[in-house]
Specification:
- The complex is a heterodimer of chains A (352) and B (613).
- In chain A, 55% of the residues are buried.
- With 352 residues, chain A is an alpha/beta fold.
- Chain A starts with 6 loop residues before the first helix and ends with a helix.
- Helix content of chain A is 31%, strand content 18%.
- The radius of gyration of chain A is 21 Å and the shape is globular.
- Chain A contains 13 helices and 13 strands.
- Chain B has four domains: 20-217, Pyruvate-ferredoxin oxidoreductase, PFOR, domain III (Pyruvate-ferredoxin Oxidoreductase, domain 3, 3-Layer(aba) Sandwich); 223-405, Rossmann fold; 419-497, no CATH class; 500-612, Rossmann fold (3-Layer(aba) Sandwich), CATH 3.40.50.
- In chain B, helix 1 (36-49) packs across helix 6 and helix 8 (225-236) runs parallel beside helix 13 (369-386).
- The longest helix of chain B is centred in the first third of the chain and has 21 residues, at 182-202.
- Chain B is globular.
- The chains are: A alpha/beta (352), B alpha/beta (613).
- At the A-B interface, strand 2, helix 4, helix 6, helix 12 and helix 13 of A face strand 9, helix 8, strand 11, helix 10 and helix 11 of B.
- Bound molecules: thiamine diphosphate, iron/sulfur cluster (SF4) and magnesium ion (MG).
- The site of thiamine diphosphate has 17 residues of chain A, from helix 3, helix 5 and strand 5.
Chain lengths: 352, 613
């Protein structure tokens, strides 16, 4: 990623800047049009903060989404990044095409629980198993916000709509699913938990591979009443930390300094460190089976387990599997893309 | 000729007593999965190498093994490539269909059959040649599994002797067929020789249908349309290829994948200058194309009708958000799953308007391997220039059958990557609106993600947007963008591949066709001229939306027959949508939708019927 940017010239010299010399405002988006208090807005704020603090070049970021209230939010962060609001449930394919075309981009996708777990479940599944390097956030409120409050497939059994309708179908746990599908970074957080969200997002930015984060994000308009397992009150009461997450970014010329203590230290590909602490004795973020078991156990207790469940920084990415050129495909010159006349003649001779 | 004169009725066809040299139809009936494809392609190539024009059409079932397959080879000294309805030489290898196969051939035909089938008592107006294939294959190879596979090549040898195919030519063709497997080549040559020797020693000479060396195929290649399209994509510089398997388009992606791994690995780094991904479905395949096109890559996917149906929503997004991409529609018979291994031009109308709301697409209609090669290259230029999807409308007949073609021409023009603003460009301009018409051609400027300039980023969306790519529900702002897209689309008429026109000075009657419907039209016009004294003009549509020339052409004639391969006269319907009432009144339709490539007999008959009515 380039470290210099002429973007600074566009703004008045700020007081506080990140390592690219950009101030926080440069990472903001348009004014939100979502409901006041919507969990999705809190997530946008955390994204602004995390990208700013990590010193990510906004010009190298692409923001992608499907359709829904959640999917509107890319307009509300990173105003200096290209954005693509796709069709309902199909953001993964747009992201895949864009990132294989230009592997130097950092993709951040925002989806909803309807967008991911219902109409988009097929594309979600295949995105997870391909390990496309990008961040995939589900803003999970258990309802269809934009179409005014129908159940989604992550709504818990027994949760009740405003109309009184009770959900009878089991919820899909997108995290458990992602782990089984081979995702290489799987986490869950809560939109109201600033500290945990920030640490997870920063670790996701540093991760080389697909980082999937399910963020419980209450819909204050349609799903924040008593009895809803995705309301503020419920999550606040039932949130069980799997671990405390802290993240030490790696920047050139900065020495990493941390206390190991009772933590597991995950070194990410760029040299940054993810520290998981307060771990139960037997928990290791590298064990897929245990991660799923813990998720299931938490469900049984009616708890919302949060934290980073699984990380595998070593897995082959889609780019590796494709033997993709190190130069982004879109930057290859014409001579590399169009074989010579001799090649055509040779093929023609073969077909005679 | 004057139309007042009553026209002669369609002529009954009969086999002349004179020997027919280089002008007849061979029909090979086999079982799917029995190795007949190599035998048939070798036969085709052997005849072509003798300088005689040929075309081959494979009528195969939607099945992997066991159902009947027919391969038709038309040998024609005049170079007509259309399918023929009749059969002069039958090779009956399939016990299931042998009886009805024999009953269908033309009187006077020659039948080579597998001896145990005992077909010779079925008709007395045919000449039968029994060949004990099972006995002949035994000494060639021991393994029963291999026997099954080389058994078919024996009929190539038998036909070589019966029809006069030069053995050297057949052997060379077999070697080509098994180019990368020399052992298999030798085994097959051995089997072909066994067939030839057997026929020479045991079968009476056959004089009715003969092949004689000519010089009409010098330099020709033999290729299927999907292979030609694949080559076109590679030389167009395609960067991202996505697909989901579906007959008859799979072999386009598969051949492209082969070519790319051979010729598009970067010699310096050993890494791929492209990405190929088998998607989870066609929704994802087109989504990936849009993502890649948006990011600035040349991206394509290949599919057929059912896949096109799934792509509808994304096609509308591409149209409205103005994202480039190339979609190959290798059409098969619909509706629904239809007849997956038969050919049709059934998606013309659907693709033209694919997606909800006011959506219109651009289609190209190649009729030959040469043209689909050229159009594949042009499609990428057009997609990036016009910032929209380009649909290349092939069909099973073009895509999966082997065609004799001229060697392809290396692209003459550099790539047209369209109106893309770099950071330096942005530095020079005051303001930029992603969806603004600056040049008066309706084509806006775009920036690519990763462009390091504060003016570069914009938000792409399928929801209402202004000229500055901002969300809107404002009636004026919304209509402004949609009207501009319409303008872009209308202006494209002038830059799309122009129709191919053959106007005869005094002709009152004309034909219009497109894609593979060209082949029966080409032949029928000659038949009408030589046998009925009717001179006709001809326009072949090569792109949609129509160029003005189509309307001018209709104006210049009294009656215009639109020839196509679908039930609903779909191209004619598209004409009705925009042509004048006077023009529409002149249009008549000739169409077939039985899944078989239209024959010239069919066309001539239907033409005469309508003329006489
Ligand atoms: C193909 C299609 N079907 C239906 C819709 C209508 N629709 C828009 S948003 C939405 C659900 C969104 O729910 P979710 O993804 O959970 O987002 P939220 O609004 O809750 O953030 C639906 C069904 C659509 N846009 N497209
Ligand atoms: S309806 Fe719910 S999800 Fe949508 S913006 Fe309002 S609070 Fe957020
Ligand atoms: Mg939701």
């Amino acid at each position: 990623m380039e470290k210099t940017s002429n973007a600074t010239q566009a703004k008045a010299r700020p007081q506080k800047v990140n390592r690219l010399g950009l101030d926080l405002n440069f990472y903001k988006g348009e004014k939100t049009t979502l409901c006041a208090g919507c969990g999705h807005n809190a997530i946008s704020e955390r994204l602004v903060q995390a990208f700013y603090e990590m010193g990510v070049d906004p010009y190298q970021v692409i923001k992608l989404s499907g359709i829904g209230c959640s999917s509107k939010s890319p307009a509300y962060f990173l105003g200096y990044s290209h954005g693509f609001n796709a069709v309902h449930g199909r953001m993964p394919s747009i992201a895949t095409g864009a990132l294989i075309a230009n592997r130097s981009l950092l993709g951040v996708g925002v989806s909803g629980d309807g967008d991911t777990a219902s109409i988009g479940i097929g594309q979600f599944v295949h995105l997870m198993r391909r390990n496309l390097p990008m961040i995939y956030i589900i803003e999970d409120n258990g309802v269809y916000g934009l179409t005014k409050g129908q159940f989604s497939a992550t709504a818990d059994v027994g949760s009740k709509l405003k109309t009184g309708l009770v959900n009878e179908f089991p919820a899909i746990d997108t995290c458990a699913m992602a782990i089984e599908l081979g995702a290489t970074f799987v986490a869950r957080s809560f939109s109201g938990d600033r500290k945990q969200m920030s640490a997870i997002l920063k670790a996701a930015i540093a991760h080389r591979g697909l980082a999937m984060i399910d963020v419980i994000s209450p819909c204050v308009t349609f799903n924040d009443h008593e009895g809803s397992t995705k309301s503020y009150a419920y999550v606040k009461e039932h949130d069980e930390y799997l671990d405390e997450v802290s993240f030490v970014p790696y920047f050139e010329n900065i020495t990493v300094d941390y206390e190991p203590g009772s933590t597991v230290d995950v070194e990410l590909h760029d040299g940054s460190h993810l520290l998981l602490s307060k771990l139960p004795e037997d928990y290791s973020p590298f064990d897929r089976k245990k991660a799923v078991q813990r998720l299931m156990a938490a469900h049984e207790k009616g708890e919302v387990l949060t934290g980073i469940f699984y990380v595998n920084p070593e897995a082959k990415t889609l780019f590796d599997i494709m033997h993709l050129h190190d130069t982004p495909l879109v930057q290859l010159p014409e001579e590399k893309l169009r074989p010579s006349k001799e090649v055509l003649d040779e093929i023609m001779e073969d077909l005679k | 000729m004057s139309i007042a004169e009553p026209l002669t009725q369609p002529k009954e066809r009969e086999v002349a007593a004179q020997p027919r040299i280089n002008d007849f139809v061979i029909h090979v009936a086999t079982v799917n999965g029995s190795g007949s494809q190599s035998a048939n392609t070798a036969l085709l190539r052997a005849i072509m190498q003798m300088g005689i024009p040929v075309s081959g059409k494979n009528l195969f079932p939607s099945n992997i093994q066991g159902l009947p397959t027919w391969f038709t080879i038309r040998v024609n000294k005049d170079g007509y490539l259309a399918r023929k309805d009749h059969v002069d030489v039958l090779v009956a290898m399939n016990p299931e269909t042998a009886h009805s196969d024999v009953m269908k051939v033309t009187s006077g035909a020659v039948v080579v059959y597998d001896q145990p089938l005992k077909l010779d008592s079925l008709r007395d107006d045919l000449t039968f040649y029994a060949v004990p294939f099972n006995d002949l294959v035994k000494p060639v190879v021991d393994l029963p599994k291999l026997r099954k596979l080389v058994r078919n090549i024996i009929y190539d040898g038998v036909l070589a002797w019966l029809l006069g195919i030069e053995m050297e030519s057949l052997e060379e063709a077999i070697r080509k067929q098994f180019k990368r497997k020399p052992k298999a080549a030798e085994l097959n040559i051995k089997a072909a020789r066994v067939g030839y020797e057997y026929a020479k020693d045991n079968l009476p000479p056959q004089k009715k249908f003969r092949l004689e060396r000519m010089n009409k195929t010098a330099n020709k290649i033999l290729i299927d349309g999907n292979g030609a399209a694949a080559l076109g994509c590679m030389f167009a510089g395609v960067q991202v290829i996505t697909w989901y398997p579906i007959t008859p388009s799979s072999s386009l992606a598969e051949q492209l994948s082969d070519y790319m791994t051979r010729y598009r690995m970067d010699p310096e780094s050993g890494k791929a200058t492209f990405a190929i991904l088998q998607a989870e479905d066609e929704l994802a395949a087109i989504g990936m194309v849009l993502g890649a096109g948006w990011a600035g890559a040349r991206a394509m996917t290949a599919t057929s009708g059912p896949g096109i149906s799934l792509m509808a929503e994304f096609a509308g997004l591409a149209y409205y958000a103005e994202v480039p991409g190339v979609i190959f529609d290798v059409q098969r018979v619909g509706p629904s799953t239809g007849m997956p291994t038969r050919s049709m031009q059934g998606d013309t109308l659907f693709v033209a308007l694919l997606s909800h709301g006011d959506t219109q697409h651009i289609m190209l209609f190649p009729n030959s391997p040469e043209e689909i090669f050229d159009m594949s290259i042009e499609a990428f230029d057009l997609a990036e220039h016009l910032q929209t999807l380009i649909f290349v409308m092939s069909d099973l007949d073009l895509g999966m059958n082997m065609w004799m073609a001229n060697p392809f021409q290396y692209p003459q023009k550099p790539m047209n990557r369209g109106k893309v603003l770099s950071a330096e460009d942005l530095e020079k301009i005051q303001e930029w609106g992603r969806y603004k018409d600056i040049d008066g051609d309706g084509i806006p400027y775009r920036t690519l993600p990763g462009t390091h300039h504060p003016k570069a980023p914009y938000f792409t969306r399928g929801s209402g947007h202004t000229e500055y790519a901002r969300y809107t529900e404002d009636p004026v702002e919304f209509t402004k963008v949609l009207a501009r897209i319409k303008k872009k689309y209308d202006k494209a008429r002038d830059i799309l591949p122009a129709p191919a026109i053959d106007r005869k000075p005094n002709a009152k009657i004309a034909f219009i066709s497109y894609g593979t419907s060209h082949w029966p039209v080409e032949e029928s016009r000659d038949v009408l001229r030589s046998e009925y004294g009717i001179e006709t003009s001809y326009l072949r549509i090569r792109a949609y939306p129509f160029s003005k020339q189509v309307q001018e052409f209709i104006d210049a004639h009294d009656r215009v027959y639109v020839v196509e391969q679908n039930r609903d006269a779909q191209m004619l319907k598209l004409m009705r949508m925009e042509f004048t009432p006077e023009q529409i009144a002149k249009l008549r339709s000739i169409h077939s939708y039985d899944g078989l490539p239209m024959s010239s007999e069919f066309l001539v008959n239907h033409f005469l019927e309508q003329e006489n009515a």
